[in-house]
Write a structure and sequence with these properties.
Elements (H helix, E strand, L loop, with lengths): L7 E5 L25 E6 L2 H11 L2 E4 L5 H11 L4 E4 L14 H28 L4 E6 L12 H22 L3 E8 L5 H6 L3 H9 L9 H12 L10 E4 L8
Parallel strand pairs: 1-2, 1-4, 2-3, 4-5, 5-6, 6-7
Helix pairs in contact: 2-3, 3-4
């Protein structure tokens, strides 16, 4: 079990994802009041990691998650840690008929294979030490919904959720819990620009009973809960964070 205190968490991220949700403003305080306050970050962007280090004091590793060997080496270098958040991801928009093998393979490599590799090394180390642990895979609402032009992305995130259930089954026997979070549109800096046009955002918001998109800190709150002992008996779920999108026709 993971006792609350000075725990270290490995967070994989890319500079285009919501990894920065782990350092919200003090007023919101998610990371500041979390027991998981000593993060180690792995990302493809050295500049992004340098900024993160300055903001929250993380120890960082630059890695190309499309490179399997480099990803495994980075995961080993980051150990030991108490918990793991697989947050790195990427996308390419192509219609199903236009999906290229190169794009499909790249998304599977970054969104599915890299989390597998990092989790393998984390779990092997925890098991070798006789320790339990917690893993959260940051997936996407796209694992449930067939969005147009997202064939490869939906496939990669659906596979991540499915793999997470197997991980929960097998690793749970060693006291390592594995869960996924599946956010809808999350307002990172890039997403704010992409969805700032009311004509584009209105149809999506219409299906969200809560009436707005998700803030990164709101994803972080759920992740922090799933890592904590408050979720000690939660294992193998895919948790939608979608403002009610899936319950609205």
């Amino acid at each position: 079990m993971l006792a609350e205190g000075e725990l270290e968490c490995l967070i994989t991220r890319t500079n285009s994802r919501a990894g920065r949700c782990w350092s919200p403003a003090p007023a919101k305080g998610s990371a500041a009041r979390s027991p998981y306050c000593s993060p180690r970050a792995a990302s493809r962007s050295a500049e992004d990691l340098a900024t993160l280090e300055a903001e929250i004091g993380s120890r960082s590793i630059v890695v190309d998650f499309a490179d399997a060997e480099a990803t495994r080496a980075a995961a080993v270098a980051a150990l030991p840690v108490d918990c793991l958040v697989n947050c790195a991801g990427t996308t390419t928009l192509q219609s199903f008929l236009d999906v290229t093998v190169e794009a499909f393979d790249h998304l599977i490599a970054v969104n599915t294979r890299a989390p597998m590799i990092v989790a393998q090394e984390y779990a092997r180390h925890r098991i070798s030490q006789g320790l339990g642990g917690a893993i959260v895979n940051v997936s996407s609402m796209s694992s449930f919904i067939g969005f147009a032009d997202h064939a490869a992305y939906c496939a990669s995130k659906g596979a991540l959720d499915a793999m997470g259930r197997v991980m929960a089954n097998e690793l749970g026997r060693f006291g390592i819990r594995v869960n996924s979070v599946d956010p809808a549109i999350t307002l990172t800096a890039m997403a704010r620009k992409a969805w700032s046009d009311p004509e584009k955002s209105a149809p999506m918001l219409k299906r969200m009973p809560l009436g707005r998109f998700i803030e990164p800190e709101e994803v972080a709150e759920v992740v922090l809960f799933l890592l904590s002992e408050r979720a000690a008996m939660v294992n193998g779920i895919s948790m939608p964070i979608d403002a009610g999108f899936q319950v609205t026709p």
